[in-house]
Specification:
The structure is a single chain. With about 475 residues, the chain is α+β, with helices and mostly antiparallel strands. The chain has three domains: about 150 residues, YNR034W-A-like (Profilin-like, 3-Layer(aba) Sandwich), CATH 3.40.1840.10; about 120 residues, Signal transduction histidine kinase, dimerisation/phosphotransfer (DHp) domain (Helix Hairpins, Orthogonal Bundle); about 140 residues, Histidine kinase-like ATPase, C-terminal domain (Heat Shock Protein 90, 2-Layer Sandwich). The chain has eight helices and 13 strands. The strands form three sheets. Strands 3-2-1-6-5-4 form a six-stranded antiparallel β-sheet. Strands 8-10-11-13-12 form a five-stranded mixed β-sheet. β2 and β3 form a beta hairpin. α1 runs antiparallel to α3, α5 runs parallel beside α8 and α7 runs antiparallel to α8. The longest helix has about 55 residues. The radius of gyration is 51 Å and the shape is rod-shaped. The chain starts with 11 loop residues before the first helix and ends with a strand. It holds the Pfam family HATPase_c. InterPro entries: HAMP_dom, HATPase_C_sf, HATPase_dom, His_kinase_dom, HisK_dim/P_dom, HisK_dim/P_sf, Sig_transdc_His_kin-like_C, TCS_sensor_his_kinase. It is found in: Cell membrane. It catalyses: ATP + protein L-histidine = ADP + protein N-phospho-L-histidine. Its cofactor is a divalent metal cation.
Length: about 475
């Protein structure tokens, strides 16, 4: 079953303008309905007065025509009778003695038999005008009846004028209110846009801050919401004020973190520097003792060997920590031309000599030159190859390749070993982290090799990534060509 795409959320501007416009439209529509209902009621009331006036005229002394067969109360229209006014006189036997309506020229036109039947069949109240549809060209009438002198006199007036008037006014109202609605929508859009501008400025500040790298190093947050947008008496102003307070707290916390990191880097650098001299002394005395001709027991010889080996390992660890501290402090590296192809060939040759029980494969199609510190780049490649050698069993194939595109050189070191534990994937470049859970444990590993490699690559403006799965691990280094 195909899933429907999620509906796109409306913006605050669109929600406010649309909601307010709908309410205004409903208000205008309701006003129009009430207005037209009141107008039609007033027109019908006026028409009813004319109907009753015509009824009085037809029933009065002036309605008794001389010699008219209809007798008293016969047909006779007011002098100012409207076109379509009708009068009917019904005698006591229920026979219409007169049934006419005022024609276009004011002449009396007889009612058709069907119209007269519809009129007589209607339930007409005493002097209570009622709406009746007579059909044909006459249409709808307001009709009233009155019994007098044994006769029933019926008078009526057409609703055509009322319908025409209300129809015309309805059209005018539709045009006027449509134009008013358009003006309201445009006005609302302008007002809401103007009202939301401070919020857009606050959003812009938040976006600029969000785009700043805050993970490490000295971080400054100079962006602040302007004073005009921090009025605590407005909703947007309170948001801007809260954002400024938040940014101040974050900046203070980041500054405290940076001071703590600087103190830690200075401590590591100072401690590493101070440890180098005593470690060198330990190594020197161990070597001096081993070189003496005085006889030693096997235990003494073994102890001196361990002292010398651990002093070497400790010296290496101190050197690594000192290098990391200097790189963290932003130490500038040399920027000399470096032939990556030559560096990679030398590194693979060294790795093959150090671990002949692994299968080493090299893919270098052409010379690729970058600018950087050749010694540090050699250290990175040696670390990657050493990592593959140390954490994979004998017989593993390790492939090193070099390629480039228009802007970057790319070094890949791939092995078909057991892979890296997924739990370590996000922490692989952290200091003192080892991939012992899923790969062969390397004796004497400090867990700083990949951390140092990442720091050196970053100092060259490059990146280092890892891609690992069961039976495959690949480390990718990208360095800018210039």
């Amino acid at each position: 079953m195909k899933r429907r795409a999620p509906r796109r959320a409306w913006t605050l501007r669109r929600t406010i303008v649309t909601g307010a416009s709908v309410l205004v439209a409903l208000a205008l529509l309701l006003t129009s309905i009430i207005t037209m209902s009141a107008l039609r009621s007033a027109e019908i009331e006026r028409l009813d007065e004319q109907v009753l006036a015509g009824l009085d005229f037809a029933a009065g002394p002036r309605g008794e025509p001389d010699g008219n067969p209809g007798g008293p109360g016969g047909s006779g229209f007011e002098p100012a009778a409207r076109i379509g006014t009708l009068q009917v006189v019904v005698d006591g036997a229920g026979t219409a003695t007169s049934a006419t309506y005022a024609g276009v020229d004011g002449e009396e036109v007889p009612l058709a038999s069907s119209q007269l039947e519809a009129l007589l069949a209607a339930d007409l109240g005493e002097r209570a005008p009622t709406t009746i549809d007579l059909g044909g060209e006459l249409g709808t009438f307001r009709v009233a009846a009155e019994a007098r002198d044994g006769r029933t006199i019926i008078s009526g007036s057409s609703l055509d004028d009322v319908d025409a008037t209300t129809g015309a006014i309805t059209g005018i109202l539709a045009v006027v209110m449509g134009a008013a609605l358009i003006l309201v929508v445009v006005g609302l859009a302008l007002v809401v846009t103007r009202a939301l501008r401070p919020l857009e400025r606050v959003t812009g500040i938040a976006q600029r801050v969000a785009e700043r790298p805050l993970a490490a190093g000295a971080v400054e947050l100079p962006d602040r919401v302007a004073a005009a947008d921090t009025d605590p008496h407005t909703e947007v102003g309170r948001v801007g004020l809260a954002l400024n307070t938040l940014l101040s707290h974050v900046e203070t916390s980041l500054a405290a973190r940076e001071r703590s990191e600087q103190q830690l880097r200075r401590f590591i650098a100072d401690a590493s520097h101070e440890l180098r001299t005593p470690l060198a002394s330990i190594r020197g005395y161990a070597q001096l003792s081993q070189g003496e001709d005085a006889p030693m027991t096997p235990t003494q010889e073994r102890s001196l060997e361990r002292i010398s080996a651990e002093a070497v390992r400790m010296s290496s660890l101190v050197d690594d920590l000192l290098l990391l501290a200097r790189l963290d402090a932003g130490q500038q590296l040399r920027r000399d031309p470096v032939d990556l192809a030559l560096v990679l060939v030398d590194a693979v040759s060294d790795a093959h000599a150090a671990a002949p029980d692994h299968e080493w494969v090299l893919h270098v199609d052409e010379t690729v030159e970058v600018r950087g510190d050749e010694g540090r780049i050699r250290q990175v490649i040696a670390n990657l190859l050493g990592n593959a050698r140390a954490h994979t069993p004998a017989g593993t194939t390790v492939t090193a390749s070099l390629a480039h595109d228009a802007t970057h050189a790319e070094i890949r070191v791939r092995d078909d070993g057991p892979g890296i534990d997924p739990a370590l994937g996000s922490r692989l470049f952290e200091r003192f982290v080892r991939g012992d859970a899923s790969r062969h444990r390397a004796a004497g590993s400090t867990g700083l090799g990949l951390s140092i490699s990442q720091a050196i690559v970053a100092a060259h403006g490059g990146t280092i990534e890892v891609d690992s799965a069961p039976g495959r691990t690949e480390l990718i280094v990208r360095l800018p060509l210039t």
